[in-house]
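Lecture notes, structural biology module. Today: joint structure prediction for complexes of two components.
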Amino acid sequence: MTVTERAPAPTSDRSVLARRQAAAGRTFVAPNLFAVAVFMVFPLGFSLYMAFQKWDLFTPAKFVGWANFHQLLTGDPLFAIALRNTVVLTVGTTVPTVVISLIVAAVLNRKLKGIGVFRTILFLPLAVSSVVMAMVWRFVFDTSNGLFNIMLGWIGIGPVPWLVDPKWAMFSVCLVSIWKSVPFATAILLAAMQGIPDDLYEAAKMDGAGEVRRFFAITVPLIRSALSFVVVISIINSFQAFDQVYVLTGAHGGPATSTYVFGIMLIQNAFDFTDIGYASALAWVMFAILLVITFLQLRFSRRNSLEQ
Amino acid sequence: MSSLTARVIKLSVLRALALYTALIAMAWCALFPILWALSGSLKNQAEITEPVLIPPHPQWANYAEVFQLMPFWRMFLNTVLYAGCVTAGQVFFCSLAGYAFARLRFRGRDVLFLAYLATLMVPLTVTVIPQFILMRTFGWTDTPWSMIVPGLFGSAFGTYLMRQFFRTLPKELEEAAILDGCSPWQVYWRVLLPHTRPAVMVLAVLTWMTVWNDFLWPLLMIQRNSISPLTLGLVHLQGQYASKWPVLMAASMLILLPLVIIYAVAQRAFIRGIALSGFGGR
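The predicted structure, tokenised, for the full assembly:
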């Protein structure tokens, strides 16, 4: 193709061909572009527009300037609560996910008999929808009938109100989020580990590096970009968590406000209170926080890899 | 010498033992909630509190009760319809656009593709409210259209995925066809598409699963049971019969089963798709 384009004097045949290709290219992209424009780009702009309006879906919208943001950041006690809960959920999911999935991926990366069976089992939670997952875990957590409390009963520990007590509810939600995100993180880390050439390990072995040393000196630095990707995705997902919270502890992030996270706050403001402008402002605050975190994370991991 | 060999063998046996123990423990952590739910789905209301994994008298009647308490098959067909339409649409329109972005030259192509990549950064959080308002404006809330049309004509993520794959195909494949006078459509449909099976599988499995498991969008869109997907039906069932654990678990298992089958059949495409979906935002 490049040769034909560099030909000094394109014959008319070639230009007809090029024109036909260009026309086809535009036609082939058109339906897709239409969908992306209507369902992604327009909503993005419209959401920003709405963030500066007061609108309840029924009466005409009214421009209010920065009032929504002002109210959100200075006048709404629930914002601080949601921020705190969301940070707890995000950190409480991301940190254990990264640690556990590193270990699981390292073990799954072994050439052992039957390792394929274990991979199949360990990745199975990927197929479970967040609703079914939350339903199944509700059963595990159930105060009087749940598996956890039955097992705790054997060692003489009284029933723990996993989802009923505000002190425990967020812990339980984190546990479920970890269960769901570890297989995802493991899949990415394992793929990265499988790309490391064996002779690197052989050379280190010759030099007398032990197993743990090899893991931290070879494996971890070489999968750094995958690791950073896992961190970013885990943060993005848990920061916007909705489904599992909704099913585990209800539409209002209960008990009390113990699991009241941004995802719940957003849907509640938009659809229970039909305060579309306020909810849009919240969406943009969330987007801004996510952008800053992603940017910092990328810079941080890049600087680290430069130092290497 | 022989005692050294014996020690080395003993050590490696110990290590293998430790590794298998770790693997079994991990597998148990991944599986126990599902196994416990499966076990619960076969117990009666009294046995629920008993710590037995294999119920002595499996209560298949729990599954029959699911069909009585919720219009399961109706919702099953709804979900198949939504997932099927969106998957077919995504595969067709994303591969078509992916081919154009990878192989056809037209003005503005590369800028447009960059814009596509930028939209991958936009979180669901920002777009969900305007999308709802869009559906409301079209009069599509509480209709099947709201479940099908937004995903039907493709997405930035799917296009990105397909474009990357088309770029890995050798150019010789299509050059002969172009010289023979094939139109771009014929090159796409007859020559290249048959070679994109791995990528198509990934996109199809991933799309099917996303629609099958989606909860927030149907929660906002759908009121009527008759057009409700399974996830929404399950949450409604739980709202009505919160303490009927055996039935709730039976319903959960029924919703899970089709995806487990897909997982078993197309594990590789499934895991690759999940790993790639990080880019997709959902």
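Point to remember: Residues 1-10 of chain A have pLDDT under 50 and may be disordered.
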